[in-house]
Amino acid sequence: MSRRWTARLALAAGTAALLVLVVFAGFGSLLLMGVGWAGLVLTAAGGWWILTHTGWIRVLAVLLVVAAPIAVLVLYAAAGLLWVVLVSVGLWALAVSAGRAALVEDSPPGMPEQSVSPAERPFLIMNPRAGGGKVEKFRLAERARALGAEVVVLDPEHRQDVAELARRAVQRGADLLGVAGGDGTQASVASVAAEHDIPFMVISAGTRNHFAMDLGLDRQDPSTCLEALTDGVELRVDLGYLQAGPADGGEGQVFINNASFGVYAEVVQSPAYRDDKARTILEMLPDLLTHHSGARLSVRAGSTAMDGPQAVLVSNNPYERGDSAGLGRRMRLDAGELGVLSVRVGNAAEATELLLRGGQGRGLTVATAREVVVEADAPVIPVGVDGEALMLPTPVRCRLAPGALRVRVPRRRPGVPHIAPPMDWRRVRRLALTMGRVAAGRGAA
Predict the structure, then answer these.
(1) CA 241 to CA 253: how far, in whole Å?
(2) For the chain, what percentages of helix, strand and coil (3-state, to nearest 5) are there?
(3) What is the pLDDT of residues 15-67, one digit of tens each?
(4) pLDDT > 90: what percent of the chain?
(5) Concatenated DSSP letters for 303-357?
(6) Which residue has the higher pLDDT, 411 or 325?
(7) I need a surface site. Which of 107, 158, 265, 431 has the fewest CB within 10 A?
(8) Sign of CA dihedral 107, 112, 118, 119
(9) Which residues, 6 or more positions from 61, have their beta carbon under 8 angstroms from its beta carbon?
């Protein structure tokens, strides 16, 4: 189906959703919408109170979150209009889905790639524990050695400095560095590759594989990444750096995905987090969200200032906000700008606004910048860097080195999935009508 007809489907489904309410519920449709919105508001407020309180208030908030939507459904059923609501909601969901699909092709083109000759002395580091044992499951070490690579499989019983292993390999003449492991391990080795301006290769053997996903690699079968050794192309991508403290004059800590500050970074620093994640989060969130514990942050991203946010995410290139799976995809890694997401929610009303407006509201700041400075009322703050928990002195400066990393990827790879942009009814309407007029004009000519 063409984008024009997809946009028309969105408009038709949206109109039908409203007509179903008006025709079958009459003036009661306004009451239906009011009851539905009231249920959403109470549920969102209850969710905020769950996160920011303990004891009996949290118990009451849980009851509210459960009772509010049930009460709304009971009221709809008692009025004999439950089916009307369900049909209307279904049509509205179709309208939003079709509208976002119609806007997909507005996405920018992919990153440019360059054909290259195979590396002569590739050196790969593999973590046998990564991804629940993917190195062994897919026989990655044996396959890489058969393709001529030198492979070091890390000893899970002894901590090893992967950056030092990579440096020694370069000294011995390695002309490509690669990693089968998590994003933190990849970042450490990527910094060495960038330092010596030699290609870096990613093998998607980690748990989340965020960097591999944004490079368009196959995350289901990491063995396909080894094709980069024999039939690869090269991408030039940006690299993020953290410089901590007033006297840090070096390159700093590298990040390939993101650095997080605030609530998440505070929680993962807790010794209890690894043993019981859910309980630790519920215990720590009330004080962190209300600023009764943890450092108070102040962030400057270019000309944009953010005071007292509870959570800040600084990413190597901006994340796509239309990703329904959450913050996990970047269409480009070579745009030369840091992405910044800052959340500051002070009460239940602000939390409700943020939820009901689909992640848009006064509590959320979205920005891009060449440099981001994070200051705090504490000399040292926790920072999550590509999933690794660190303690860094303040201020922390985040910057981007454009095109600093050469990445070798297979010529044939799945590619980065297209991400549907956030719904924009004005653009959908314009797309549905304008393209039709253009086509009509061409036919008349």
Answers:
(1) 5
(2) 45, 25, 35
(3) 999 888 888 877 666 787 888 889 988 998 898 888 888 889 999 999 999 99
(4) 47
(5) TEEEES-SEEEEEESPPPTT-TT-S---S-S-S--EEEEEE---SHHHHHHHHHT
(6) 411
(7) 158
(8) negative
(9) 46, 47, 49, 50, 53
**Per-residue confidence (pLDDT) for residue 191, from 0 to 100:** 94
Vertex 392 angle, CA 386 and 393, to 5°:
155
Burial zone of 2 (CB within 10 Å; 0-12 exposed, 13-18 middle, 19+ buried): exposed
Chain CA centroid to CA 262, Å: 17
> Chain-wide mean pLDDT for the chain?
86
**pTM of the prediction?**
0.81
Residues in the chain: 445
Q: Which of 242, 219, 208, 221 is nearest to 387 (CA)?
A: 208
pLDDT for residue 230 is more than 60: yes
Q: Which residues contact 342 (CB under 8 A, 6 or more apart)?
A: 299, 306, 309, 311, 312, 313, 364, 365, 366, 367
Residues 61-84: b if buried by 16+ CB within 10 A, e if exposed: beebbeebeeebeebbeeeebeeb
- Count Cβ atoms below 10 Å from residue 173 Cβ, excluding itself: 9
- Determine if the peptide bond prior to 246 is cis (ω within 30°): no
How many C-beta atoms surround the C-beta of residue 186 within 10 A? 32
Helix and strand totals (H; E) in the chain = 13, 17
Give 242's Cβ-side CA count (13 Å radius): 30
Return the amino acid letter for 276: D
Separation in Å, CA 20 to CA 31, 101, 251:
14, 24, 61
Q: Tell me which residue of 434, 361, 432, 438 sits closest to 99, measured CA to CA.
A: 432
